[in-house]
Specification:
It is a single chain. 33% of the residues lie in helices and 24% in strands. The longest helix is centred in the N-terminal third of the chain and has 16 residues. The radius of gyration is 23 Å and the shape is globular. The two termini are 32 Å apart. Bound molecules: adenosine-5'-diphosphate, aspartic acid and magnesium ion. Aspartic acid binds next to α6.
């Protein structure tokens, strides 16, 4: 059972979480709980780091931001004890959850579930309350964190390590919706979604699950169930099926839609290099230095050159890397050879996702028409087997998402 920030936002919510856990314990389950920091806590800690040093040491950043989850694990364990459920808290390093040393965005390498399983047996179901988001670097033993939203990944990794029947992600919505329900009130809850689709949805902007948690669930075959912590614990029958979304293998989904969901991200920036020389080796001269600077390039569009001599090349990078990307290109100007570098940060990427696209033609064409009818200009397009993404002006994000949501019949009745 994983509880996110809003689910443990204050003492009253923490008591509520304890009652959810007690319900499952009373139903005879062995339970491992993974908790996030209380809502807003991680942001506050990150901000403190920035105020002390804009270019902080990533190891110390991890020492600071991992503390939020330590507090919640202890409080949830206490809340459980207070209602007669035996419980013990665990920090990442105590299990341990071993990670790489990429401080601030470490990857889990291994979770040792032996001690938890032993205690389930010997201490007749003592609940383990584990701090999410944090781990320990395998060689140095230092505390690491898994990137924002990383408690989801902690939860799935722990579930895999103890071969849990299920990994329930309790959050502030009662499942995965066809798009962010805060932006489109007519979004519908999906009963099931395939791992591949959830992977795309998460990596293209839907923050309901961290991408890496979906990857882990897929690789280790952990069924992930997204559900609400705001339902009253007492109203839920632990043997029934509560409202929520199961993330599962494609084969388990009988009624497959062509389009399953729509994601969007305003966290994009566009760079356009004007009048680049149109000759072999130019793409390498542009994208080589960006790769060396660890800047992730996403969409790439190259125009067909009219005169055979020069062309325009447009690509996107994460908004946070925009300045660095511009500097990197300008530094490489002499080896690239171009006339002008233009950029924009007021852009957004809207993506349409669905496994059904594999076998249906013309899905993207419908979107181009619908957006044209709304006078929304498309700056760049990318496609893959089960999704396509469109880069547009950020001001039109909500309009574009709502338009496409209706177009593909996703609005709830
Ligand atoms: P937690 O703190 O529990 O981890 P998050 O804030 O990280 O919760 O994720 C839940 C939020 O994700 C929801 O409140 C919702 O606004 C947002 N979200 C974005 N896209 C979707 C989607 N397709 N379905 C459900 N929620 C979504
Ligand atoms: N507390 C961390 C964050 O805010 C991890 C999480 O909530 O999943 O990013
Ligand atoms: Mg989250």
């Amino acid at each position: 059972m994983k509880f996110g920030g809003t689910s443990v936002a204050d003492i009253e919510h923490i008591r509520n979480v304890a009652r959810h856990v007690k319900r499952e314990v009373d139903a005879g389950h062995h339970v491992a709980v993974v908790v996030s920091a209380m809502a807003g806590k991680t942001n506050e800690l990150v901000e403190w780091c920035r105020q002390i040093a804009p270019l902080y040491d990533a190891r110390e950043y991890d020492a600071v931001v991992a503390s939020g989850e330590q507090v919640t694990a202890g409080l949830v364990a206490m809340a459980l004890q207070a209602i007669g459920v035996s419980a013990r808290s665990w920090q990442g390093w105590q299990l341990p959850i071993l990670t790489t040393n990429a401080h601030g965005g470490a990857r889990i390498l291994d979770v040792n579930g032996t001690e938890l399983l032993k205690r389930f047996k010997e201490r007749s179901g003592e609940v383990a309350v584990i701090s999410g988001f944090q781990g320990m670097h395998r060689e140095t033993g230092r505390i690491t964190t898994l990137g924002r939203g990383g408690s989801d990944t902690s939860a799935v990794a722990v579930a895999a390590a103890i071969q849990a029947e299920r990994c329930d992600i309790y959050t502030d919505v009662d499942g995965v919706y066809t798009t962010d329900p805060r932006v489109v009130p007519r979004a519908r809850r999906l009963a099931k979604i395939a791992f591949e689709e959830m992977l795309e949805l998460a990596s293209l902007g839907a923050k309901v699950l961290q991408v890496r948690s979906v990857e882990l669930g897929m690789v280790h075959n952990v069924p992930i169930f997204v559900r609400s912590s705001f339902d009253k614990p007492e109203d839920i029958d632990p043997r029934g099926i509560p409202p929520g979304t199961l993330i599962c293998d494609e084969e388990e989904i009988l009624e497959q839609q062509v389009v399953t969901g729509i994601a969007f991200s305003k966290d994009e920036a566009q760079l356009s290099i004007r009048r680049v020389q149109d000759k072999p080796g130019v793409a390498a001269a542009i994208f080589g230095p960006l790769a060396e600077a660890h800047i992730n390039v996403d969409m790439i569009v190259q125009n067909v050159s009219g005169d055979g001599a020069t062309t325009d090349l447009t690509f996107t990078v994460p908004a946070a890397d925009y300045r660095r990307a511009c500097e990197t290109i300008e530094k490489a100007r002499s080896s690239i050879g171009y006339e002008r570098l233009d950029g924009a940060t007021d852009v957004a990427k809207v993506s349409v996702i669905g496994i059904g696209m594999r076998s249906h033609a013309g899905v993207a064409a419908q979107a181009f028409r619908a957006l044209a009818d709304r006078n929304i200009n498309i700056r760049a397009i990318t496609t893959s087997e089960i999704k396509f993404s469109l880069l547009i002006d950020a001001a039109y994000t909500e309009l574009a998402v709502r338009t496409l949501h209706s177009l593909y019949g996703l609005d709830k009745a």
